[in-house]
Specification:
Oligomer: heterodimer
Number of strands of chain B: 8
Number of helices of chain A: 11
CATH topology of the largest domain in chain B: Butyryl-CoA Dehydrogenase, subunit A, domain 3
Largest sheet of chain A: 4 strands, mixed
Domain Acyl-CoA dehydrogenase/oxidase C-terminal (chain A): 230-366
Order of helices and strands of chain A: HHHHHHEEEEEEEEHEEHHHH
Order of helices and strands of chain B: HHHHHEEEEEEEEHHHHHHHH
Helix content of chain B: 40-55%
Number of helices of chain B: 13
CATH architecture of the largest domain in chain A: Up-down Bundle
EC number (chain A): 1.-.-.-
Distance between the termini of chain A: 33 Å
Strand content of chain B: 5-15%
Radius of gyration of chain B: 23 Å
CATH architecture of the largest domain in chain B: Up-down Bundle
Domain Acyl-CoA dehydrogenase/oxidase N-terminal (chain A): 7-93
CATH superfamily of the largest domain in chain A: Butyryl-CoA Dehydrogenase, subunit A, domain 3
Strand order of the largest sheet of chain A: 1-4-5-8
Number of domains of chain A: 3
Shape of chain A: globular
Domain Acyl-CoA oxidase/dehydrogenase middle (chain A): 143-213
CATH class of the largest domain in chain A: Mainly Alpha
Cofactor (chain A): FAD
């Protein structure tokens, strides 16, 4: 959480919290079944009206942020989603918007798509992962071959968030001129989407095949070889993930502290045992560190600082790596109740396991830090 | 009262003066062969401090009446920026200026402030802390060095240890028990003790890596005048608390009394990156992952210092949250030492030929790895403070609370 929020930011935060609490209490999420749609477009449109799709889009393209610091507002919003392990395409839509906004002026015009996404009328998702391949956004195997003034896309993507509900996919592809991105409607001929299993009960993913999908040159986002657009998308994705992770960890930790005060053994509360107190002290310290690095990453991405790429990988690797042992220790400190379906902890554990794994694992980001240090 | 010089005017004066008077680090004089290396370092620091004083750039944030310049932290900050790359007496910063002189300024008598702070600023004297004792480290208020009244004087008997660079100091702030009939925090008095006084015996403690920066002291009927008391008699805990505050502030990077950086560049440790390059292992993905982990931890530590310091300043976190920084700093230190040894591989144990080499340096550093988790209060104490004072969990059972100290059980 930010140390100090403006009154506008507090209102923004509170309106998001109300919408989430009303529609998605934890018991509803616990009850979500395979194959069920996790969220409705009506609900998403309400979120869009509250500004969920506007934070990082300039005003002339229909966007605008409450604080003037859109990335930090987005981070606030992601904290609300993390705290409620909420569904919704906040990450995919905003990551695609980040790419489209970044590429504006550097290639075909996508202002109509941007406006429709900001209005909540359409949904988009980043198709960047490929089946059986680890995080390597700059080395897609999916090809885009120039033909008839446009391109033909061949290949497959997976781990595409909300693929089944998406209208548009931002697809990374290899062209003769290097890696490029295309905005492809899911309704295009040759695009087929199939569901993918998800550990997180409120998130859904899909696999997407591209069988000779023909797109016009105007589907290109930016220009081939424009890797800084992909970098910006990654940075936005990681800020959203780390903010969610921090909030999920906050919630799980708060539940566990309360449990330690309420639960008595041998006539004393768990919170009075030094062996346990020391574990709480470690977790309290790590939580502070997780927030500090997430906040620093958000600020760097907001300001487009020279070290934004580095600070994003610092945050993702640290928060991602810390999150799993912290949540498992929360489970351990709860005792048997912590591994039951009825307890909320597994909802957080599911979200944290997902967030730390996607858009580069902590280990992927450690390696990126070594690269960035010119080692 | 004259108006304070503007920060920018001070900056340009400092820049010109430094260029004309202070040696550049790059062409620092080779160490002389007289005395041991540590003694030379301290002799050199006093000479440099004298130069700063003569040039009018010593004691920037100390009041003018005690020999300082009476300027603001912003002036100190620009001096630190301008003095980067110059050889400065940075060993005098912690503890002499930023802990001892700062505490005297808060709690000392007029005479103590005028004489001791003034002499330190002039480069004539150095101060140290005499707090921990061989009988116990974490329980500072349980010290058993005894101070007994003898007419107008006090007689000091006991032992201290873990006093950083006391061998180079002229005066020490010594916490002693002056009243055994009251509970432990209420019977303590702080004294300013001349380290060369008759009855004071000092040894340097050799550490497991061979270094000897810490000292132990024995006091055998050391006679101190009434004017040696800092603060009030039996109120030494208030003074010690100020010292601990200034110590945390110094270590956390928040002290305005630190001039020209906290650490000497020469004492900078080899980082895991240096070791990877020197051992030609930078291409190994296993090594690169470890390096990434080290870099992330370093950065996160720094970011957390900023966040927690701001939160303590606004009251969003209690002052005891400083223990969060203490704990994270220790974890980061331990991780760096571990990664250095892993990257150095067998070189950490067998060095390079007959020499220790860079791998051997990693190995030696590993021997004192726990130092960072012990010095300035162990991490176990930090965990108690965080769980009890930040999270509000029940306090550990203490059998010495509200009991006259003479009735408290002690080890042998």
């Amino acid at each position: 959480m930010e140390l100090e929020l403006s009154s506008d930011q507090k209102i923004f935060q509170a309106s998001a919290r109300r919408l989430l609490e009303k529609e998605y209490p934890l018991d509803r999420i616990r009850g979500m079944a395979d194959g069920e749609l996790r969220w409705s477009r009506d609900w998403w449109q309400k979120g869009a009206e509250l500004g969920w799709t506007a934070t990082i889009v300039p005003e002339e393209l229909g966007g605008g942020s409450v604080s003037g610091e859109g990335v930090r507002d987005l981070s606030l919003l992601a904290e609300e989603l993390g705290a409620g392990v909420a569904p919704g395409p906040l990450l995919p839509v905003n990551v695609v918007l980040a790419g489209l906004v970044e590429a504006q002026g550097g290639g075909p015009d996508h202002s109509a798509e941007i406006e429709s996404l900001v209005a909540g009328e359409s949904i988009a998702s980043w198709a960047v992962y490929e089946p059986g391949v680890v995080w390597s956004p700059l080395e897609p195997r999916l090809t885009a071959t120039p033909a008839d003034g446009g391109f033909v896309l061949r290949g497959a993507k997976d781990r595409v968030e909300d693929a089944e509900q998406a209208d548009l996919l931002l697809v990374t592809a290899m062209t003769p001129d290097g890696v490029a991105q295309f905005l492809v409607p899911t309704s295009a001929e040759g695009v087929s989407v199939s569901p993918q299993w998800s550990l997180d009960l409120s998130r859904s993913f899909g696999e997407v095949r591209f069988d000779d999908v023909r797109v016009g040159a105007d589907a290109l986002v930016g220009a081939p070889g424009a890797v800084e657009v992909i970098e910006r998308q990654l940075q936005i994705a990681v800020v959203i993930q780390c903010s969610e992770l921090c909030a999920a960890l906050d919630r799980a930790f708060a539940l566990t502290v309360q449990w330690a005060f309420d639960r008595y053994s041998f006539g004393r509360p768990l919170a009075s045992y030094q062996a346990l107190k020391h574990r709480f002290a470690d977790m309290r310290t790590w939580l502070e560190a997780c927030h500090a690095t997430t906040q620093a990453a958000a600020e760097a991405v907001q300001n487009r600082s020279a070290d934004a790429a580095e600070l994003v990988s610092v945050a993702k690797s640290y928060v991602g790596e810390r999150s799993l042992p912290m949540l498992q220790d929360c489970v351990q400190l709860h005792g048997g109740i912590g591994v039951t379906w009825e307890h909320d902890l597994h909802l957080y554990l599911r979200r944290v396991t997902l967030d730390q794994a996607l858009y580069g694992t902590p280990e992927d980001h450690f390696l990126r830090l070594a690269d960035l240090a010119s080692l | 009262m004259t108006a304070i010089e503007s920060v920018e005017s001070f900056r340009s004066r400092a820049r010109a003066w430094l260029a004309g008077n202070m040696p550049r680090l790059a062409d620092a004089a080779p160490p002389s062969t007289e005395g041991d290396e540590d003694e030379q370092r301290w002799r050199r620091a006093r000479e440099l401090q004298k130069k700063l004083y003569a040039g009018g750039f010593a004691g920037i944030c100390f009041p003018e009446e005690y020999g300082g310049l009476g300027l603001t932290p912003a002036h100190q900050q620009v001096f630190n920026e301008e003095s980067d790359g110059y050889e400065l007496p940075v060993v005098l910063n912690i503890p002499s200026f930023s802990i001892c002189a700062a505490t005297l300024l808060d709690m000392g008598s007029e005479e103590q402030k005028r004489e001791r702070i003034g002499a330190a600023i002039r480069g004539e004297e150095v101060m140290c802390q005499l707090l921990s004792e061989p009988s116990g480290g974490s329980d500072l208020a349980g010290v058993i060095t005894r101070a007994e009244r003898d007419g107008d004087n006090w007689i000091l008997n006991g032992a201290k240890c873990w006093s950083s660079s006391a061998y180079a100091a002229d005066w020490g702030l010594c916490l002693a028990r002056s009243n055994w009939d009251v509970p432990k925090h209420q019977g303590l008095t702080m004294f300013l003790v001349p380290t060369k006084a008759p009855g004071v015996k000092m040894n340097r403690v050799r550490m497991s890596d061979g270094s000897a920066e810490f000292c132990e002291e024995f006091f055998d009927d050391v006679v101190l005048p009434a004017s040696a008391v800092v603060g009030e008699v039996d109120d030494g805990w208030s003074v010690a608390s100020r010292q601990l505050f200034h110590e945390r502030n110094s270590m956390g990077g928040g002290s305005p009394y630190i001039s020209g950086g906290r650490y000497a560049p020469a004492t900078r440790q080899m980082t895991p990156l240096d070791i990877a390059r020197a051992t030609d292992r930078a291409g190994d993905p296993r090594v690169r992952e470890m390096i990434g982990r080290f870099l992330a931890m370093e950065k996160v530590s720094e970011q957390t210092v900023g966040r927690v310091s701001r939160a303590m300043a606004t009251g969003a976190l209690p002052p005891t949250a400083a223990s969060i920084l203490r704990l994270l700093h220790a974890e980061s230190n331990e991780m760096a030492a571990d990664i250095a040894v892993k990257i150095a591989g067998s070189g950490a144990a067998t060095g390079a030929g007959a020499d220790q080499g860079i791998g051997g340096q990693a190995g030696l550093r590993f021997l004192v790895r726990q130092g960072g988790s012990l010095g300035g209060g162990s991490t176990e104490m930090a965990r108690n403070v965080i769980s009890e004072r930040v999270l509000g969990m029940p306090r550990e059972l203490a059998l010495d609370r509200d009991v006259p100290f003479k009735q408290v059980k002690r080890g042998r």
